[in-house]
Amino acid sequence: MSGPDPETKMQFLYSVRSRGVTDQKVLEAIEEIDRGLFVRGIFSQRAYEDVPLPIACGQTISQPSVVGMMTQALQLSQRDTVLEVGTGSGYQAAILSKLARRVYTIDRHARLVREARSVFDRLRLANVTSLVGDGSHGLPDQAPFDRIIVTAAAEDPPGPLLAQLKTGGIMVLPVGQSDHVQTLIRVRKTEDGLEYDELRPVRFVPLLEGLGKDS
Ligand code: SAM
Fold first, then answer.
1. Any ligand 1 atom below 6 A from CB of 104
2. 137 vs 141: CA distance, rounded Å
3. Total number of domains in the chain
4. Around 30, how many Cα atoms within 13 Å sit in the side-chain half-sphere?
């Protein structure tokens, strides 16, 4: 991370750690990727607070400790190919890029994908591919995936995403009614079927169908 002064950086990492992010590699990725690059306008001065912040298209960049928790729950290895549904600012994808072999990230808003892509280029994140589309259908051409992360809330895990997860794979996503507190869950796909873990309460914007208006 190059942006914040050392004191701000220390407090930022402390707040992420104190909310349950303990995986050293995940913490190192959070330290390395400057969240300030993903937040624009007046909100950029709050980039190093552990809060979600508004971004373009009425969307949000997630709370850093939630980004850390979700990344940790994926139990990534450097061999993994990951699908992220909900690029938003691109911050979560950039963190994933440090811990996985290849990251595909998709958002229904073309403007968000364009802006995220410019930060990926600036950071030279060559293993991230960003696409515009309705991610609830997954990315059949690139499937199956070792890991899938959804950063918008659905009532249930979308069937196409479950189908595109490898056996032995892990998917992490918020589920529940939109505008209510949802539950972050982890789904493991085993030879015997799907296993579900409830991780913590969260609040995400909804997973919507189709493309955003600017697309
Ligand atoms: N991961 C993001 C980040 O690091 O900034 C935060 C994502 S934001 C909470 C949720 C995103 O999901 C929004 O950008 C929204 O446009 C996107 N989204 C909602 N429904 C979608 C869908 N069906 N397909 C793709 N993206 C979707």
1. no
2. 11
3. 1
4. 30
Ligand 1, atom nearest to 52 Cα = 9
- In a domain, residue 207? The reply is no
62 in active site: yes
* 3 lies in some domain: no
138 touches 163 (CB < 8 A)? yes
Residue 150 within a domain: yes
Residue 35 is assigned to a structural domain of this protein: no
pLDDT digits (tens, 9 = 90+) for 76-112: 999 999 999 999 999 999 999 999 999 999 999 999 9
Q: Which residues of the chain have pLDDT under 50?
A: 1
- Give the per-residue pLDDT at 215: 53
C-alpha–C-alpha distance, residues 29 and 137, integer Å: 29
pLDDT, position 165: 98
Are 91 and 67 spatial neighbours (Cβ–Cβ below 8 Å)? yes
Q: For residue 106, which atom of ligand 1 is closest to its CA?
A: 25
* CATH number, domain containing residue 186: 3.40.50.150
Q: Which residue has the tokens 């290895």?
A: 77
For residue 95, what are its two tokens?
């963190």
Nearest CA to 11 among 46, 62, 55? Answer: 46
What's the domain range around 118? 65-202
Q: How far is the CA of 13 from the centre of ligand 1 (A)?
A: 24
